[in-house]
Amino acid sequence: MPSPQAPRAVVMIRPHHFAPNAQTAADNRxxxxxxxxxxxxxxxxxxxxxxxxxxxLAAAGLRVHxxxxxxxxxxxxxxxxxxxxxxxxxxxxxxxxHAPNRRAERRPDVIEMLKAEYRVQDVxxxxxxxxxxxxxxxxxxxxxxxxERVAYAARSxxxxxxxxxxxxxxFNFEPVVFDAADETGTPIYHTxxxxxxxxxxxxxxxxxxxxxxxxxxxxxxxxxxxxxVIALSQAQIAEFAGNAIELEGADGxxxxxxxxxxxxxxxxxxxxxxxxxALLPLEIPxxxxxxxxxxxxxxxxxxxxxxxx
Length: 309
Hints:
Elements lengths: L8 E7 L23 H21 L3 E7 L14 E4 L3 E4 L13 H10 L4 E4 L12 H4 E4 L4 E5 L6 H11 L2 E5 L16 E3 L3 E4 L7 H12 L4 E4 L2 H5 L6 E5 L2 E7 H6 L2 H8 L3 E5 L11 H4 L1 E2 L9
Parallel strand pairs: 1-2, 4-5, 7-8, 10-11, 13-14
Antiparallel strand pairs: 1-15, 3-4, 6-7, 9-10, 12-13
């Protein structure tokens, strides 16, 4: 029986003019901006990294829907998990984005593909709340436990608690909101940087959660049904070790993460993860300059394919 947590298919966007986004740099300390002279080289490397990642995922048995972005005004388009999510029962959500230039990432052709290839019952569009200053950047802002129906969310200007409550009502999740910061005290911009919930394990940057009582509560919730809860250090979070996603490959569960993230894990952590999922590292150093990693690149599809029984 497949897990509701681990999708078998993903949407990816291959950028032709990739660049770290100046509009998001203010609150994304994971980001680094290249010099102007590097722009063409950076774009070419990013294109290659996405191509290679898509090939590796397909080789692992994943269905990969790869879309091209030839525009120059959507520097973060490689991170589609922020603008839409999919849910069992045929539900799709579209999200309001904080940075103005990220709003153009929403693509009708992606949604039309979902409707054509999968059983889509409805699309709930929250994006009209952008003029009201309400933002909820998809499965970047929320880490969803599809098994226990919990939506974990770190407070930030990219995560409206009002809209989170609305989402949870519509999609039957319980919101768990907390404050999280890096070692300098700067709030962490997206929850999926510090937490990954898989079927039988979870990765969490517990030290990032400021309040000790809230930290203990979240760790208890994550481990309540027997999940192996693996703590990540602040240093490992900075290397994107929390920005991973469990996928259902042809030979069972895989944990997709970056090669940089894998290198940051110690031997015991790798061994504990490998009890539950095979490690699938992807080389994406250029993409990571934009302040996101593998989890951000993959919009998991929790929909039933058309023609499935």
